[in-house]
């Protein structure tokens, strides 16, 4: 999945809040995913999930937060 600027911005903000500590961020948001389209965070998402439906925009573009972090490195 291709991540939009909105999703990258959301991840960047989360990393800033965690002082660039990805381990702490992933631990805090262990059951969260991010929509690759709109950047919405949502709970109930497995770390390696792909293609879940977004609660915000309806796109089937939610992936696990851990997987998303790997993509931006």
The secondary-structure element order is HHEEEH
The beta-strand count equals 3
C-alpha-based Rg, rounded: 11 Å
Total helical elements: 3
Strand order of the largest sheet: 2-1-3
How would you state the average pLDDT, rounded?
90
- Beta-strand level of the residues, as a percent range? 5-15%
SSE-based structural type: alpha+beta
Q: What multimeric state do the chains show?
A: single chain
Uncertain runs are none
Structure at a glance:
The chain is of the alpha+beta class. The protein has helices at 5-17, 22-28, 65-72, and strands at 32-35, 41-43, 62-64.
Write the layout of secondary structure elements.
Blueprint: H1 5-17, H2 22-28, E1 32-35, E2 41-43, E3 62-64, H3 65-72
Antiparallel strand pairs: 1-2, 1-3
Description:
The chain is of the alpha+beta class and 73 residues long. It is built from 3 helices and 3 strands. It has one domain. 38% of the residues lie in helices and 14% in strands. Strands 2-1-3 form a 3-stranded antiparallel sheet. A hairpin with a 5-residue loop joins strand 1 and strand 2. The protein is globular. The relative contact order is 0.23. The model has no long low-confidence stretch (mean pLDDT 90).
């Amino acid at each position: 999945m291709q991540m939009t600027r909105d999703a990258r911005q959301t991840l960047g903000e989360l990393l800033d809040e965690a002082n660039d500590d990805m381990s702490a961020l992933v631990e805090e948001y262990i059951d969260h995913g991010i929509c690759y389209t709109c950047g919405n965070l949502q709970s109930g998402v497995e770390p390696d999930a792909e293609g879940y439906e977004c609660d915000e925009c309806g796109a089937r573009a939610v992936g696990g937060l851990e997987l998303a972090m790997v993509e931006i490195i």
